[in-house]
Structures are given as structure tokens and as C-alpha cells.
Design brief:
Layout lengths: L7 E8 L2 H11 L3 E8 L2 E10 L8 E6 L12 E9 L4 H10 L5 E5 L2 E7 L5 E6 L21 E8 L3 H11 L3 E6 L2 E5 L7 E5 L12 E9 L2 H13 L8 E2 L4 E6 L5 E6 L27 H7 L14
Amino acid sequence: MSQRTAGIHHVTAFVQNAQETVDFYSGVLGLRLVKKTINFDAPEVYHLYFGDEKGSPGTIITFFPAPGSRRGRIGGGQVGVTTYAVPEGTLDFWHQRLLKFHVSVETRERFSEKTLLFRDNSGLLLELVERTEGPASTWAFGGVPVDKAIKGFGGAVLYSVSPDKTAHLLEQVLGMEKIGQEGSYARFKSEGNLGNIIDINIQPMEYGAGGAGTVHHIAWRAKDDGDHVAWRNKLAGLGYHVTPIVDRQYFNAVYFREEGGILFEIATDPPGFARDEPADKLGEKLMLPDWYEEQRALIEANLEPIEVRILKEDKE
């Protein structure tokens, strides 16, 4: 197979409160807020991006915070669990850190890997796993030092209403390799070193319901614009209802819903998050696309102020 994705580009989810989301993902998990912008289709809503120091593909989780929005239900047709990779020997540090912030943690095992399973403030399911693959983080914040910092995505657990069809797409279309099956899970691996391990619950699941605490879509990596066009043509040729290419400022995107009900995106690695602000200032200013710039005052007035801050538990 000539065309393969390197793995996850980003994951996008719904949450309820913008400041609580910043506090959890930067204050507790130590990720960098790399972009503060808006939902281009609903400018009254933030679109917040968190990742490593540069916002590298394979590290980026993004959120649409909507105050007062209803909670969703995690189920079929969704990413069930978003997995983060941490350095070897750091899982005990993370267990104690989560408990310090009063986050309930379950210890589990899958494919002989110990994981820590927990939820964010809106109920989104996350897990931490130790992995040797992938570059170490260069970002430290609050009580998370560089040598224990999250590297990026370890991968994800997919909940499908038709897992055989989802598995077929991962292998035969996206170019992943099936590397194991254990209990209720099949495991697939892409050629990247972050966001490269994808597990599927092989039991068909009833559809979940979208809302706060659920993943909206998962995006896979395309190397560049040429690769991206080739992905779109390939998907359309296979009969998938794929969107036109959409300019998301920091990457180009196409979307399609696979037969297991999960919304997939293909996103380009370039141009990245430093295209409109200096790398050392990422996430500090509300960034707007050109067509919204003349409405900046109104947009800013409609958004609650947020800040990246060290939490009191790390000051004590």
C-alpha cells in the first residue's frame, strides 16, 4: 500500500466550561495552550488547542467549550477513550498528581500495558500509558517537569457500531497494521511514533449521543497538501462521502463518516500553529481568521476571559 497515515493528527471534543478546560489540560496535565481562536462556524464559541510546545501533529487536542451545554453519552460512533503517552517510569507520578487534584483514577491493563483511566471536568474519558516511542516533551508547566511531561497521544480507543468495517478501513484504507487481539480489543499500529496505536472494541456498540464530554471527531495525518488531495481522491473513489477541502488556517481538512459511525478527518501537518503568531507566544492572544477580524471587538466581548494559570495545588 503506497499511501499510509502516520497516525493521529488531532482529536476534537465538546466541553462545557472554557476556564475549567484550560485549568485541567494546562494546569493539571501540563499541556501548552498553543492556539486560542474561535469555532469558524460559530464565532461565539472558543476553539482551544492544547499540545506540546510547538503544537506538533500527534499531540493536539482541541475543544469547543459551550457553557450550559448538555452532557453527551460516550458510545458507538465515537472515540471512546483518548490515550496520552508519558515517559517510562512516570505512571506513579501521574497517579499521585491526579489524586492531588481530586481526579478519580482507575488502573487498568490492555495488551499487557498498565493504564490510568480518568475523566476531565466535562466527563471526557482519558488514559495515560507509558511508551518509549516518540520524542520527549520540551514543555514544563506548573508541577509537571519536562522529564515527566506528556509526550503526545499514545493513540485512541474507538467505539464502533460496526467494528469489522472500522477495522477494514484502518487496515485497507489508512494503511495501519493489525498487531494483536486480546479480549474485547483489536490493536492497530500506524507508522508514526506518536498517536500511532489504535484499539477498537470489537463488540458492536450502541450509538452514543454527542454533547459535552464526548469526542466530535478524530483526525489523521496527511504529510502535505499533495498527500491530502490524494487522500481525498482515494476516499471519494472508494465511495466515502468526503467533504471538499476546508482551510482551517493551521491545517487543511476533509471529513467523512466511516461505516462504524465515527467522524474521521484527514488533516495536513503543515502549516502549523506558528503561521500567525511567534512560536514563543503561542496561545496568548485570541487569533481570528481575516474574515472575522473586523468583528474582533464584538467577538471578544461575547467570550468569557480565560487564562493559563498555575493552580493552587501546585502552589502549596
